[in-house]
Amino acid sequence: MDQRMGCVIILGFGFMLLFTAFQTMGNIEQTVINSIKIDEPTFQGDGYTSLAVIYALLSISNWLTPSVLSKIGPKIAMLLGALTYCLFILTFLWPQTWLLYVASAVLGTGAALIWTGQGMYLSKCSDESTISRNSGIFWALLQMSMFFGNLFVFFLFQGKTHIDNDTRTLVFSILAGVAIIGIVFLGALRKPNQPSITVDDEMPEHQQSPKQAFINAVRLFMTKRMLQLSVTFIYTGLALSFFSGVYGASIGFTEAIGESAKQLVGLNGVFLGVGEVLGGVIFGLLGKRTAKWGRDPIVIAGFIIHISSFFLILMNIPNAAPFGDTDDVAFFKPPIAAVAILCSFLLGLGDACFNTQIYSMLGGVFAKNSAEAFSIFKFTQSVATAISFVYSSHLGLRVQLGILLVFGILGTACFCLVEWAVKRSRAVDVNECETVDTKK
């Protein structure tokens, strides 16, 4: 195993531990907040609003991160961002409305640092032939975070219709401890040996001034390919808010499922992770073939998987489920717990299809501007996620699924257009090289 592969694995483990804490937190946040309001009536926080604040600040901060990374580099950026995740979790040990939203805003800023730093670091560990493999490996390790925290919550919440203070304290303390271990892994990252054939060697990113990094990000955003990809980024943001905040809560609020409804919130996160990890492992193993065949078949497969899950959710979960506990039912009477968990798996698998190929596209095609490309990705995705969390508390499940369907079609089509343009460009370059060789 070469040094760059080792860096990818350490990076993946660091993110796995950090997001074991945070993704579990996001999955149970609305359910836990509802219980806090019962125990402490002065607390008026809202999980959807908190997540909206996080992603709103994340979207704004992404325009500044290329400038920051040009000064401090990806490792320090990731460490600073990771600390804000730990701080957010710890604030739930002292639930205060104002503190929830302040911590959410700080986390949004830190998230921009950690994700842009991660994308830049992963790009530096890869070249065109290894970016798909490395993206798949990182994604599989990252999404293993969905297993451990959510399994812990699944067993801890067993038989509970109300999450009491002692249970909440135990959960948040353990999750904060896991996040700290993840920060230790990120601190152990070394500077990767640069690939000998990447475009980054022609124009090292550290030579850019903060002002130039910002200008380059704006220019890159206005290119035709990036504008098309932005539609795909928007879809991943809408899907992210749905499966990370809305769907799990909707399962827990569907009382017709039975006494296990709250417990299924944790199991939902586990099977989301199963789908995410399976997708990452498959695309990591098929990295070389993906580079040969192209990314579009995988994204199309992800779209089909998501459409199937949306249909089953429509049939199984009542329209009022995102708003709170409800006795309503949908077309399946009563709702089927196994179908709800199957949809969790399909949502995770489809998301892995989209995100691994987006990482491959940005880290390979846009290697020269990796920090700018990943900041644009997170900016666009975060704007969509924030908007989605705002309307999630006002729109019924059916309207939300309709929005996902429309943007899923548009996002898949736009990604395929960019991928086909890249293939044509490479074919022209190959033909020109062959022509030159013939003349010689």
From TrEMBL:
Keywords tagged on the record: Glycoprotein, Membrane, Transmembrane, Transmembrane helix
Main location per the UniProt record: membrane
InterPro entries assigned to the protein according to its UniProt record, in alphabetical order: Ion_channel_UNC-93 (IPR010291), MFS_trans_sf (IPR036259), UNC-93-like_regulator (IPR051617)
Gene3D superfamilies: MFS general substrate transporter like domains
Membrane topology of this protein: Multi-pass membrane protein
Pfam families: UNC-93
Location in or out of the cell: Membrane
Transmembrane segments: 47-64, 76-93, 99-116, 137-157, 169-189, 229-253, 265-286, 298-315, 335-354, 375-393, 399-418
Transport as UniProt keyword: no
Highest taxon of the lineage: Eukaryota
PANTHER family per record: ET TRANSLATION PRODUCT-RELATED (PTHR23294), UNC93-LIKE PROTEIN MFSD11 (PTHR23294:SF0)
Similarity comment: Belongs to the unc-93 family.
Protein's name according to its UniProt entry: UNC93-like protein MFSD11
Species for this entry: Aedes albopictus (Asian tiger mosquito)
